[in-house]
Structures
1.
Amino acid sequence: MVIMIPFINLKAEYRSIGKELDPKIHSILENGFFVLGDEVRNFEKEFSDYMDNKYAVGVNSGSDALFLAIRSLGIGSGDEVITVSHTYISSVDAIIRNDAKPVFVDIDKNTYCMDSSHIEEKITENTRAILPVHLYGHPADMDSIGEIAEKHDLFIIEDACQAHAAEYNGVKVGNFGDLGCFSFYPTKNLGAYGDGGMVVTDDSELAELLRQFRNYGQTQKYYHDFQGFNSRLDELQASVLRVKLKHLDYWNNKRIKIAKIYDDHLNDLDLVLPVEMEDSKHVFHLYVIRCKNRDRLKEELLKKGVQTQIHYPIPVHNQKAYENFDVKLPVTEKVCNEILSLPMNPFLDDDEVIYICEMMEDALG
């Protein structure tokens, strides 16, 4: 008998917290107020308290969190932002939408995050910021990145869209730069039931600027100081996120426990398993292995009912949409041909994780 194991399981998540969610959602429908109300304000306060920073500004997606963060720093035409190509495309798209130029550095072969040893060779007179990505839930090397940014007077914009509550030297990511950006896409460790995002900062002026940018540049209704955007986190999503935030630490700990089971059972196979650097806390948004015969393994696991995904098969600099990038990133390109994301969510039980491991052993045997 084949056991069906989905890659994610949002139905199980809803079943676990539905009794908390339903009355919250119903009260908003009854209230009839859906945009920039108490739920958003309360969630912003609760999230900033949780993150240990001063301000949080809710926006309509992680993509817009990145876009508006860059815009709020005045980065635009002729400016350069150093980032990585092994990431979801929104990390790079946010730079391009601001008419700035992304400059790629390669990734560390262990963490898959930005290799800080390559940053300084990419800095020019046009460089304005560094945008590290805390990929898969593991923090980037923020000590080195911070030192380089300070030395060259550069902004840091953290892409923490996959790293809710990940820590570097005991501090939650999102606190190391001028601005930290989060996504609440449904599959994230903290996900809405639709799109949503957040920018966090300790700078009051940046926070106020972001509030204006997200709402057409308004200081008050119908008074527009500059051209802004429609990028508001709505009340329904904020109410969902307020409920889920209370569960985030428990869910992250479940992910860490599942990762440990994977580690213990897959350690002897011909695979490269995820690492957790000594100074970091990995929250395993994804559990990503590397396998030389990745595509065959993926196919064999699907036959056994195990859904897997690839995050990400084509690096951004090789995407058709961005054919003008002429750069070689050997580690990035090698990794993208080998990575495979195994099922990872807090609602996997131990027997399911062990079954996945057994099926992998069979496939690789």
2.
Amino acid sequence: MSKFIQITGRDNVAVALEPLRAGETYLGVTLLEDVPAGHKFALRDIPQNGNIIKYAFPIGHATRDIAAGSWVHTHNVKTNLSGLLEYSYNPHPCAMPVDREATFEGYVREDGRVGIRNEVWIVNTVGCVNGTAKALEAMAQAAYGDRVDGIHCFVHPYGCSQLGEDHRNTQKLLAAMVRHPNAGAVLVLSLGCENNNVTEFKKVLGDYNPERVKFLVTQDCEDEIEAGMKLLDELTAYAARARRQSVPASELVIGLKCGGSDGLSGITANPLLGATSDLLARHGGTTLLTEVPEMFGAETILMDRCRDRATFDKAVALINDFKAYFIRHGQEVYENPSPGNKAGGITTLEDKSLGCTQKGGTAEVRDVLKYCEPVREKGLNLVQGPGNDLCAITALMAAGAQMVLFTTGRGTPVGAPVPTVKVATNTPLAQKKRGWIDFNAGVLVQGATMEETVETFFAKLLRIASGERTQSEIHGYREIAIFKDGVTL
């Protein structure tokens, strides 16, 4: 195993794969100081204001002269990004042929979509009934849990005292949950007096099957627990009628996410997700990429892969609207990476973004979706959403992801309402956090090839789609977070 990696021949830095010591020599360069694992060192002298090149792109500039063999990080590098940008469309043809076939065992729903779980979900119209939802979840799981893959509620603080777009986003997000194909049946739980009351929520939800979706207004009944259990009995009985059947991998919709990233994220786990995204495109399937602020600095790579000018224009709006969101709140647009990212070796937002967007592979960008907008196009889609882990995985679920692939170098237990597959960027994390991690991409710097690793990983995803549980499911890690931008009364 090599102790370092130079990602491309154009790079003027290399990344340590394990802690390196001053005085050691690599690629003819003697280290002048210790370099932590995941961090960078200079392969040649870099003058003040000279660009730091990684992934064949600038990730910032030197704030002072950097001698070959020096540790390259936040103490001597600054981002090149500033302000809003204008973009031009320079298309790079990259459509993927559909030339692979595979199947999994899924649940075909009445609208033709396919679920990979047959669960009963309790969806609250308002946070005031969170306690009731949790009580019903526990009681129904004990009473009826053997009928379905699980009974789950998802608490949140919203649904009332919100205004404008925030209120609409809450309604759209909750409606997307009610419609999600992983839910065989849904109990919509309401207080009764909230802004997002059942009458108003039904306007956003639209048509529904009354056998699959039932409503309970807790202010209207004497004993909401008794009434809720009666409805959950009916809903689990309805959901239990569904059976797994063989369906093509083209029916898979997979979300792509990273969190708790480190210096290996853009070298192992994120490229693995990118190769998997490309492979799923070759099967005719769909992947969703979000975390818009973590596209800043790498956005032109995605824009040039847009299938046409209209999609490019939507991608430009996606980026600029998110920058305007920061500016509107008086925040620094490029206030990233996080302290944990920096400790793991990520220096600037460009460094983070160029690694983050590796998850999107090389395929054509087929569409750009607004927050909670359902996916329509097969292939790679961009989804409006922040970098925040909980908000991002919730946005992916709302767009239609049946599972989320989540890479991490530092480790996190967080899980979406849908199966969340944790992919470690490094072997020590995978060995230390076996209760969090489902797959170890660290093998890619230990001699494994990308080709064999992606095939092994894809086979595991088909097993998960067919019912194999992820660590987040085993431990009950399921949460939502609704994106908020505005006033709370």
3.
Amino acid sequence: MIDAVTSMFAMDLKFNKVQPDSVVFGTQKAFALPPGMAFAAVSPKFLAKSEKVENKGFYADFTKLKEKNDENYALTTPPVSLMYGVDYQLDKMLKEGMATRYRRHQEMADMVRSWACKRMQGVFPEKGYESNTIGVVKRGDLDFDKFHSIIKSMGMEISNGYGSAKNTTFRIGHMGDLTCTDIKALIAVMDAALEEMKQ
């Protein structure tokens, strides 16, 4: 099972080569829509296994979900507004072309990583495990609250670290409808914030 919540539609997951039994993702992140709708693609092997699992709950009952899907009927009340949003975003993706979309996400990620190496202490993940949608930057002794406050006053926003890395990192989202121009603008603002903090 692949948790593709941040990577789906941002990088080529090479499904033909990997042959996953299941891929799960949502409308947030690289889909550039509000959260609220989840997708699961499952293999025939996965469905056959699901039929035999007892007490699988409601949302993990892929057999029942498939039956309703085959009837073109929702198992629960569908989030219709998000469905229209998905249709709109899929049209945009097809117009951009997936290879171009994947390249754009790679370029944005590379820009953030390059900045992190020049101005901070690099990125948190080990080389080869970095995300093309979230830049997790090692902040060292940077006063993140002050840094973020200045950035917000300039009309941009980033996020504090998460989980056990909360106090040593911060996160930069570079996915969905964002472009390299947007990331360049953010980098300029972050550089300006760092200069202001020196005063």
